[in-house]
Design goal:
Elements (H helix, E strand, L loop, with lengths): L4 E7 L3 H12 L7 E7 L6 H11 L3 E5 L9 H12 L4 E6 L2 E3 L4 H9 L7 E3 L2 E4 L3 H25 L9 E4 H6 L13 H9 L5 E3 L7 E4 L4 H14 L7 H30 L5 H26 L9 H20 L12
Parallel strand pairs: 1-2, 1-4, 2-3, 6-9, 7-10
Antiparallel strand pairs: 4-8, 5-10, 6-8
Helix pairs in contact: 1-2, 8-11, 9-10
C-alpha cells in the first residue's frame, strides 16, 4: 500500500520556478493521499499572490511563511523544520522550487520505494542538471552525476555519507525523534547533508534510481555558483560523522583514474629513453583499454537513469576532479569562517 506523502518545497524569490513546478506536483499520478507544502522565505516578488491563487484551486496545497526575522537559525533550516512539523503525513518529500519531476509517475515511484520496508526511514533520489551550455554546463552535469552515483551506491551498502537535498524522502517521526537540525543550526548551507549523514545507516536508507523518480533542475547560469557550491561543501563536510571509510573510497576512485595515466606516462618516457620500441604503443593501448572500460561502465549507469552520455570528455573530466577539490579546499582555507554562518541580528 502506498503511504501518504507530504511534499515540502522551500522557496525564496522563485515565483517563475513555482509556476512551472506546482502544476506538475499537484497533478502527479498518485493513488494515495498527498499534499504539497510550500514554505516561502519572505519573498518580495509575486510569489505570495501566485500561491494564494493556487491555494484556491487545489485543496491539497498549503502555504507557510517564515517569521520576518530569525536570530540563531539559518532560513533554510527553519523553513524545513516548519514544513516537517506542519506535515500531515509521516513521509515528507523534500525538494527545491527550481526543480521539477521528470515524469508524472515520480511521486508513485518514490512512494513505492518508501513502502518496501518498515525499517526504511529515508529514501534518496537522483536529480540531474538540464539545459546547461558550454564548458560550465558540461562540468556541472558531469560532476553532479559522478558524485551522486558514488554517494548513492555508498548509501546502499553503508548508509548515506551525504545527499542531494532536491529529491529526499524522510520520515517525519524520525526527524522529530532526532530533533531535526539540532546540530549546527546557524550554518547557512548543508542542512539535509548533515541531517542524513548523522542519522543514515545501511538498514534505514533506501535508494531510488529508476528513471521515473528522477528530478530535473536547470543548470545554474552563473559560473560563480560552481565555486560557491564547492566552497560551502568544504565547510559542511567538517560537521559530518563516519567519514573515514567514505573518504578512503573517494580517494580510491580518484586513484583508479590517475594510476593508469601515470603508468602510461612512465611507459612512454621509458620507451623514449630506451631501445624497447614497443613500450610506447603498449602503454597507450593499455591506457585506452582501461579508460575506455571505465567510460563504458560510467555511461551505462547514466543511461539507466536517463542521463545523457558523457563519452569524449570523460577522460579529461575525471582527471580534473582532484584539481577541483584542491582548489575548493584552498579557497575554504583562506575564507573567514563566519562567512558560512548566519549573522546574528
Amino acid at each position: 500500500m502506498l503511504p501518504g506523502i507530504s511534499i515540502l518545497v522551500t522557496s525564496r524569490e522563485q515565483c517563475a520556478d513555482l509556476h512551472r513546478l506546482l502544476p506538475m506536483l499537484l497533478e502527479q499520478d498518485y493513488p494515495a493521499s498527498y499534499e504539497v507544502i510550500v514554505v516561502d522565505q519572505n519573498s518580495t516578488d509575486d510569489t505570495r499572490p501566485y500561491l494564494e491563487h493556487m491555494e484556491g484551486l487545489y485543496d491539497n496545497l498549503r502555504v507557510m511563511e517564515l517569521p520576518e526575522s530569525t536570530r540563531d537559525i539559518s532560513p533554510m533550516r527553519l523553513a524545513l523544520t516548519l514544513g516537517f512539523r506542519a506535515a500531515s503525513y509521516d513521509w515528507v518529500l523534500v525538494l527545491q522550487a527550481n526543480c521539477y519531476p521528470a515524469t508524472p509517475d515520480w511521486l508513485r515511484g518514490m512512494g513505492e520505494t518508501c513502502a518496501r520496508s518498515q525499517a526504511t526511514q529515508m529514501v534518496l533520489g537522483y536529480t540531474r542538471f538540464v539545459n546547461g551550455e558550454g564548458w560550465h554546463g558540461l562540468r556541472c552535469r558531469f560532476f553532479r552525476a559522478w558524485q551522486q552515483l558514488l554517494n548513492l551506491s555508498w548509501a546502499e551498502r553503508h548508509g548515506a555519507y551525504r545527499c542531494d537535498g532536491t529529491n529526499l524522502c524522510y520520515r517525519r517521526s524520525y526527524f522529530l525523534e532526532h530533533k531535526g537540525f539540532a546540530f549546527d543550526t546557524n550554518l547557512l548551507m548543508g542542512a539535509t547533508d548533515i541531517m542524513v549523514n548523522h542519522h543514515s545507516t545501511a538498514a534505514n536508507t533506501a535508494v531510488s534510481l529508476s528513471p521515473e523518480t528522477v528530478m530535473l533542475q536547470d543548470t545554474p547560469r552563473y559560473r560563480s555558483w560552481w565555486y560557491q557550491e564547492r566552497l560551502f561543501f568544504m565547510e559542511t563536510r567538517r560537521h559530518f560523522r563516519h567519514t573515514c571509510l567514505y573518504r578512503l573510497n573517494y580517494a580510491w576512485q580518484n586513484l583508479l583514474t590517475w594510476f593508469p595515466t601515470l603508468l602510461a606516462i612512465v611507459g612512454i618516457v621509458y620507451g623514449l629513453v630506451s631501445s624497447f620500441e614497443y613500450a610506447i604503443p603498449i602503454s597507450i593501448v593499455l591506457w585506452l583499454i582501461i579508460v575506455g572500460l571505465r567510460c563504458y561502465l560510467f555511461n551505462r549507469r547514466l543511461k539507466q537513469i536517463g542521463e545523457p552520455s558523457i563519452v569524449v570528455a570523460y577522460p579529461l573530466l575525471t582527471h580534473l576532479i582532484v584539481w577541483w577539490d584542491l582548489l575548493a579546499w584552498l579557497r575554504w582555507l583562506f575564507t573567514p569562517k563566519q562567512v558560512f554562518r548566519k549573522k546574528f541580528i
